[in-house]
Design goal:
The complex is a heterodimer of chains A (about 140) and B (about 100). Chain A is an all-beta fold and about 140 residues long. Chain A has one domain. Chain A is built from no helices and 17 strands. Chain A has strands spanning about 15, 20-30, 30-35, 35-40, 40-45, 45-50, 55, 60, 65, 70, 75, 80-85, 90, 95, 95-100, 105, 110. Helices cover about 0% and strands about 65% of the residues of chain B. Chain B has no helices and 13 strands. Chain B has strands at about 5, 10-20, 20-25, 25-35, 35-40, 45-55, 60, 65-75, 80, 85, 85-90, 95, 100. In chain B, strands 1, 2, 3, 4, 5, 6, 7, 8, 9, 10, 11, 12 and 13 form a 13-stranded parallel β-sheet that branches. Chain B starts with a strand and ends with a strand. The chains are: A mainly beta (about 140), B mainly beta (about 100).
Chain lengths: ~140, ~100
Amino acid sequence: MAQARTTNRGSDARIGSTARIRGRIHGDGDLVVEGQVEGAVALRGDLTIAEGAMVSSEGIEATSVTIAGALEGDTLASGAVRLAASARVRGNIRATAIVIDEGARFSGRLDCEFDLPTELGGVSRGEPRGRASTRR
Amino acid sequence: MASTVIGAGITIEGEITTEEDIVVAGTVRGKLSAKEAVTIESGATVEADVQSGSLAVAGTLTGNVTAGDRVDLQSGARVVGNVKAARVTIADGAQFKGNVDMDV
């Protein structure tokens, strides 16, 4: 990706398209991956996997995650996860909101917790909490 | 801006390789290899062997360095390790402990 020179504002960290990281990435701040990452990612910030990027991870944790590239591994987001049209994802996603754009390919489980109306939820158990799936 | 930037809050434990340049403002432990320039900014911590085209250090670096072109230890830099490059500068205010090999 022939990137024009831009300021670093709005992006704390960037893994360029020719870069390859094997290992653990963690910390505070946003991260944009344009290259290859093999390993766990844990961020207090937003993660963007750009188109053309390849991420193979035993686990991704971030505030929100936007995926336009390829990802193999599970994703846990405290905010939203968005799969753009060019996304290719294999793995489970757990988030408070999930968007899958038309054209995205996804194989895995979506776990998006929400409250069902009490008439529908498990009222008898006294825990009126619905789940898109039962995985914790 | 460099193609790869490790921001101030970010830590990478492992191996980084790139065909382009890289700026470290955060923490890197492991191994760092770039075809072009590596910049270790003030406040950054690198505990890694570094292989690069050129290297500029204003932060803390522990590890051996091999650069194809040059190594510049800037004021405020703290470097422990051996440096191998054709051209090496050490600025006033830089701390350095290790061997220099200019391949003469």
